[in-house]
Amino acid sequence: MRKIILLGYMGSGKSTIANRLSNSTEIPFVDLDKSIEERTNLSINEIFEQKGEIYFRKLEREIFIELLNSSGNLIISLGGGAPCYANNHELLKGKNVVSIYLKASVETLFERLVSNKSKRPIIANMDEDELREFIAKHLFERSFYYNQAQYKVSVDDITKDDAAQKIIEILA
């Protein structure tokens, strides 16, 4: 039972690429953040506001482990911060796990995020300079955890379909 884990920064295309990968491989796809929202009947933002980040991170790890231990093959898209907390990065190297870091440059992430900031409350009120600096700082802080993935696929200057195809080649 193979678990294919996609990780990377917000805007790297994790959910979209996981969905395309699922369609191509017929392996079911689960978005970890959506699973958390379904379990709590709250949005991620509401969880942070009402229960705090520690509660969220504990629940995130619990559901991640449940997904990893579930029967059958599964594609799991992680939230951008998931690998960075509670030693989740160690789960990226588990038995029957294939972990793939969707690596994007600061510029690629900026271009993708600047146009839909309103959908992401953490960056919604930032101006362009603040956003670019925020992305660069976060990528630097998270790079150790992201680089724990077994494979890296650069998503700069390629389509989501091309990224999914590269992952299919890794899985072959």
Annotate the secondary structure layout.
Blueprint: E1 3-7, H1 14-25, E2 29-31, H2 32-40, H3 44-51, H4 53-69, E3 74-77, H5 88-91, E4 97-103, H6 106-114, H7 128-146, E5 151-154, H8 160-171
Parallel strand pairs: 1-3, 1-4, 2-3, 4-5
Beta-strand residue fraction: 5-15%
Number of helices: 8
Quick one: how many beta strands? 5
Cα(first) to Cα(last) distance is 15 Å
Report Rg: 15 Å
Globular, elongated, flat, extended or rod-shaped: what is the shape?
Answer: globular
What does this structure look like?
It is a single chain. It contains 8 helices and 5 strands, in the order βαβαααβαβααβα. It is α/β, with parallel strands linked by helices. Helix 6 packs across helix 7. The longest helix has 19 residues, at 128-146. The radius of gyration is 15 Å and the shape is globular. It starts with a strand and ends with a helix. The mean pLDDT is 94.
Structure characteristics:
globular, 5 strands, 13% strand, 172 residues
In short:
The protein is an alpha/beta fold and 172 residues long. The chain has helices at residues 14-25, 32-40, 44-51, 53-69, 88-91, 106-114, 128-146, 160-171, and strands spanning 3-7, 29-31, 74-77, 97-103, 151-154.
